[in-house]
Amino acid sequence: MRSAAPTSPAAPDQRTTRPVRRLIPLLVGLVMVTPMATDAYLPGLPSLAADLGTTDAGAQLTLTTFMVGTAVGQVLAGPISDGTGRRPLLVLGTCLFAAAGVLTALSPSTGLLLAARALQGLGGACGMVLARAVVLDVTSGADTARVIGTMMAIVGLAPALAPVLGGLLVDVVGWRGVLGLVAVVGIGLAAVVWARVPETLPPERRTPAGLGAVARNAGIVLGRTVYRRYLFTHVLTFTAMFTYVSSSSLVLQDDLGLSARQYSLVFGSNALGMTLFAFGSVQLFTRTRVGHRLLAGTGLALSLTGATALLALGLADAPLPALLVALWCAVAPTSMAMSNVAVLAAEQIRDYAGSGSAWQGSLPFLAGAAIAPVLGALHATAPVPMAAVMVTLLVCAVVMLTLARRAEAALKAPAGARVEPGTSAAD
């Protein structure tokens, strides 16, 4: 039960709406910095392993612990903030991200680095989930769609852009320098959050806080069929994209023979493609009101077509340029699908914005952490196995999106029909 009847999610506290809208660039930064911290140092993993005297597997664990910390942090921070308000956990989380970031750059051993990365992920999770919750607190309608769509586009882009930037920086400042720069960004964000971010969740709209609220609110939001199916669509699409991110170095350099510079160019072109699709879909919605369902379905269809072409070309031992074109067509449209599915999911859980945002953020990170060993077991170091995994995931995403559409259509209200709480009938 709620402590008080909530006000309408579409009519947020007017005292906070305007200042928070001016802080949207900061909120986007909070969503972006954690995915960037996930992957920016990956080009430096070989030197990290050598410096700390560990194996390649031990170095890769620093990625896994960060992602697990991020996933757990989001699951906890979202529901707790529904009871305590957004600001306290947002300040605490950004300070923890900054402090742990300093520790990662200075860690003298693998064990300490693993612990610091887990804490860094835990702190960064607060920024990711609560930035989305703040947007849901203070916006409605097209404003929500535009801001959440942009945020999710950036979350999808960050894993693709971060290794490119990291590759440029590692040669100059080393892996410790890259992690140090992430820490500096974290310190800056923490200072701005402390000074500028107001509370956006009024007491009358809060739910009881505590660990019990995590399980209770999770049951409520995950019990909403439409939300759950959109959520799984997003997770499957993200995992397909992350399959490419995780395998790209081995596939493009070790198997296809690209140099480090050529690899960066290919990776960068794919990231640019994701940028074009992500922000192009935001513009389409804003200017033409093309529905999010159509945009999400189009993104998935294009990506699945590209992944299928990559699989077929790999089996046919096609020349490198053909493989790279197919890879671009498989990767670039995923951002269109992810950003629009995220908006569709967010519209279902306005009354539990923290809890719903937590699952939207945490499950993709858990899936990303899980896919790496799966790819290793499948020996996905060549185009064919990588493309096969992507095709499988994207087919599942298309099926889940179709099921979500059907469930939402069934809940649209001919007179007297029962509508699931939080369900949006808007296209």
Write a structural description.
- The chain is mainly alpha-helical and 427 residues long.
- It has a single domain, classed as MFS general substrate transporter like domains (Growth Hormone, Chain: A).
- The chain is 80% helix and 0% strand.
- The protein is built from 15 helices and no strands.
- Helix 4 (56-84) runs parallel beside helix 6.
- The longest helix is centred in the middle third of the chain and has 56 residues, at 141-196.
- It is globular.
- The two termini are 31 Å apart.
- The relative contact order is 0.14.
- Mean pLDDT is 82; it is low at 1-17 and 417-427.
Tell me about the largest β-sheet: none
List segments where confidence is low: pLDDT < 50 over at least 5 consecutive residues.
1-17, 417-427
How many individual domains? 1
Please identify the top-level CATH class. Answer: Mainly Alpha
Instruction: Indicate the CATH architecture.
Output: Up-down Bundle
Secondary structure tally, helices: 15
Rg over CA atoms:
21 Å
Give the CA-CA distance, first to last residue. Answer: 31 Å
Report the sheet-strand fraction.
Answer: under 5%
Summarize the structure.
The chain is mostly helical.
List keywords for this structure.
disordered N terminus; 427 residues; single chain; Growth Hormone, Chain: A; globular; mainly alpha
Q: What's the structural blueprint in terms of helices and strands?
A:
Layout: H1 14-22, H2 24-39, H3 45-52, H4 56-84, H5 86-106, H6 110-138, H7 141-196, H8 211-222, H9 225-255, H10 260-288, H11 292-315, H12 320-331, H13 334-346, H14 353-377, H15 383-411
Helix pairs in contact: 1-6, 2-6, 2-7, 3-4, 4-5, 4-6, 4-8, 4-14, 5-6, 5-7, 6-14, 7-10, 7-13, 9-13, 9-14, 9-15, 10-12, 10-13, 11-12, 11-13, 11-15
